[in-house]
Design goal:
- There is one protein chain.
- By secondary structure, the protein is an alpha+beta fold.
- Helix content is 39%, strand content 15%.
- The chain starts with a strand and ends with a helix.
- The relative contact order is 0.10.
Length: 98
């Protein structure tokens, strides 16, 4: 049974907490392995670097880490814009009530 915490009259939320450990293969530990991950309030992301990409000249570790970093950068920018928008809406709402 899942218990929901009531946030407002008609809004419920769940919160996920967790952790992670990265232990690369001993042959790949000098470059930090080929996989990467992202864990925050909104997403759990695992970018699995595919070792066979080496034969095509692609570093799977670099690819998976860059994918993660670009996603994180994009979501950070979107969150800033969304927060600014919400702040403006709140200010307008408060101005109307005053």
């Amino acid at each position: 049974m899942i218990k929901l915490k009531q946030k407002s009259v008609d809004m419920f939320y769940l919160r996920l907490q967790g952790g992670f450990v990265m232990i690369p293969h001993f042959e790949k530990k000098d470059k930090g392995g080929e996989d990467s991950f992202l864990f925050d309030d909104n997403i759990i992301m695992v970018a699995d670097g595919v070792g066979s990409w080496n034969q095509y000249g692609v570093d799977p570790g670099l690819y998976s880490k860059e994918l993660r970093d670009k996603y994180e950068l994009l979501t950070s920018a979107l969150n800033v814009n969304m927060n600014q928008s919400k702040t403006m809406e709140l200010k307008k709402s408060m101005a109307k009530k005053a």
